[in-house]
C-alpha cells in the first residue's frame, strides 16, 4: 500500500495484504539456505522453519555457532551442513555471515551462485562498498535484501510472542522478474511486522548511522555523561542509574513506543514537560554536527574501511571481548546489573525456579 508521510509517499507491505499463505505458496519449491548462525541467522532461520518453509543451515563445523545450531534442533546431514554444502544445496542463499565473514567466504560462495539462484542479504554493506569488499555477483541471479530493524534476538522473541519487528526490503538485481515476491515472502516468513521499501545504499547508510548514533553509540555516550556528572555531584550510584537508565528504559520509552514523544510528555509532570521542551533543542544543536560528521564518514566509505580493517584483524574477537568486558566493568553497568536483579519480575522468576 502507499502511505503518505506529509508530502512523502512510501510503499508499505503489511501481513494483511501479503499473508503468510501467499509467501509459502511463492517459495514452496525453494530451499532456503541460511549461511551463518551468529546474530541474524538464528532468529530468521528458526522463524522461517516454524512458519513452514524449507530451511537449511550452513555453518563452519564444530564452531560455537555450529554447536548452537545443534542445540536449537538443527540436525547435521539433514538440515545442518558445512557452508560449502549449504551453498550448493540452496536455491535462495541467505548470506547472514558477518560483514568480515562475507568478504572471506565470497570467493567460495560465488562458485555456487549458479544461474537462476537467489542471493539474499540483511544488510547492504557488502554490495554498497563492493570496491572494498570485492563482493561482485554475476548478472544471472536475483539479489535482494530484507533488513529487520532490530537484533536477531528481538526478532525471535517478538515472533514467539506473536508480534514482529518492522523490516526494510530492497531489490538489487531482478534476473528472474520474481525478486520482489521472493523478498516479500521471506520478509513475511521471518515475522516482519510490516515491510518498507528502500535500496541497498540507503539501508546501509541509515543502519550504520543508527548503530553509531541513537541506537547504540550516542545513547551509551549520553548515559555515561549523565551518570558521571550525577556521581561527581554526590548522587548515589542507585539514584544516578535510575535517573539515567532505568526510568528511561522501563517507564518512558514504553510510553514513546505506545503513542509517541508528545504523548509521553503529556503523561509526565508539568515540571518535566517544561524542562524537556526547553532543553531538547540544545541537545539537538550540540549533537547535529557530530551526526553530520558521522553521515559523511559513512557515505564516503571511510567508516566501512575502518570496520573492514578492524574486523579482519586476526585478534579482533579477543580485542572485542576485552572492550565489552571493560564496558561491563564500568560502574554504570555494574550498578545496572545489580538494579536489574532487583526488578520484581526478576524476583518472581527466582522464587518460581
Précis, in short:
This protein has 353 residues and is of the alpha/beta class. The chain folds into 2 domains: 198 residues, Rossmann fold, CATH 3.40.50.720; 142 residues, N-(1-d-carboxylethyl)-l-norvaline Dehydrogenase, domain 2 (Orthogonal Bundle).
Walk me through what this model shows:
The chain has 353 residues and is an alpha/beta fold. The protein has 2 domains: 198 residues, NAD(P)-binding Rossmann-like Domain (Rossmann fold, 3-Layer(aba) Sandwich), CATH 3.40.50.720; 142 residues, N-(1-d-carboxylethyl)-l-norvaline Dehydrogenase, domain 2 (Orthogonal Bundle). Helices cover 58% and strands 13% of the residues. The chain contains 18 helices and 10 strands. Strands 1-2-10-9-8-7-6-3-4-5 form a 10-stranded mixed beta sheet, sandwiched between helices. Helix 11 runs antiparallel to helix 12. The longest helix is centred in the C-terminal third of the chain and has 30 residues. The mean pLDDT is 94.
- Which band does the percent of strand residues land in? 5-15%
Order of helices and strands: EEHEHEHEHEHEHHEHEHEHHHHHHHHH
Biggest sheet character: 10 strands, mixed
- CATH fold type of the largest domain: Rossmann fold
Please name the fourth-level CATH homologous superfamily of the largest domain: NAD(P)-binding Rossmann-like Domain
CATH architecture of the largest domain: 3-Layer(aba) Sandwich
How far the N terminus sits from the C terminus, by CA atoms, comes to: 47 Å
Radius of gyration: 22 Å
* Global shape: globular
- How many helical stretches? 18
Please indicate the count of domains.
Answer: 2
Poorly predicted runs: none
Number of strands: 10
The overall pLDDT average reads 94
The computed structural class is alpha/beta
* CATH C-level of the largest domain: Alpha Beta
Amino acid at each position: 500500500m502507499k502511505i503518505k508521510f506529509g508530502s512523502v509517499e512510501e510503499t508499505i507491505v503489511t501481513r494483511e495484504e501479503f499473508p503468510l499463505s501467499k509467501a509459502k505458496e511463492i517459495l514452496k519449491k525453494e530451499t532456503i539456505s541460511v549461511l551463518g548462525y551468529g546474530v541474524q541467522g538464528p532468529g530468521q532461520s528458526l522463524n522461517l522453519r516454524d512458519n513452514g518453509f524449507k530451511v537449511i543451515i550452513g555453518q563452519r563445523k564444530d564452531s560455537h555457532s555450529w554447536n548452537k545450531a545443534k542445540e536449537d534442533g538443527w540436525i547435521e546431514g539433514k538440515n545442518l551442513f558445512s557452508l560449502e554444502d549449504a551453498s550448493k544445496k540452496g536455491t535462495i542463499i541467505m548470506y547472514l555471515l558477518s560483514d568480515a565473514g562475507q568478504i572471506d567466504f565470497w570467493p567460495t560462495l560465488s562458485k555456487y551462485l549458479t544461474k537462476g539462484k537467489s542471493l539474499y542479504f540483511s544488510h547492504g554493506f557488502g554490495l554498497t562498498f563492493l570496491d572494498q569488499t570485492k563482493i561482485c555477483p554475476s548478472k544471472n541471479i536475483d539479489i535482494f535484501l530484507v533488513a529487520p530493524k532490530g537484533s536477531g534476538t528481538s526478532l525471535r522473541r517478538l515472533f514467539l510472542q506473536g508480534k514482529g519487528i518492522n523490516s526494510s526490503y530492497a531489490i538489487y538485481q531482478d534476473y528472474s522478474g520474481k525478486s520482489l515476491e521472493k523478498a516479500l515472502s521471506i520478509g513475511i516468513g521471518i515475522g516482519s511486522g510490516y515491510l518498507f521499501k528502500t535500496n541497498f545504499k540507503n539501508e546501509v547508510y541509515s543502519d550504520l548511522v543508527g548503530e553509531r548514533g541513537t541506537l547504540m553509540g550516542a545513547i551509551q555516550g549520553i548515559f555515561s555523561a549523565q551518570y558521571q556528572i550525577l556521581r561527581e555531584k554526590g548522587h548515589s550510584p542507585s539514584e544516578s542509574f535510575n535517573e539515567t537508565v532505568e526510568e528511561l528504559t522501563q517507564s518512558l520509552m514504553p510510553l514513546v513506543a505506545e503513542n509517541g514523544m508528545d504523548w509521553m510528555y503529556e503523561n509526565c509532570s508539568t515540571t518535566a514537560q517544561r524542562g524537556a521542551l526547553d532543553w531538547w533543542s540544545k541537545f539537538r544543536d550540540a549533537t547535529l554536527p557530530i551526526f553530520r560528521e558521522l553521515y559523511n564518514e559513512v557515505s564516503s566509505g571511510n567508516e566501512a574501511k575502518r570496520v573492514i580493517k578492524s574486523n579482519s584483524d586476526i585478534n579482533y574477537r579477543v580485542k572485542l571481548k576485552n572492550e565489552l568486558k571493560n564496558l561491563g566493568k564500568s560502574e554504570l553497568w555494574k550498578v545496572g546489573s545489580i538494579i536489574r536483579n532487583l526488578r520484581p519480575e526478576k524476583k518472581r522468576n527466582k522464587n518460581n525456579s
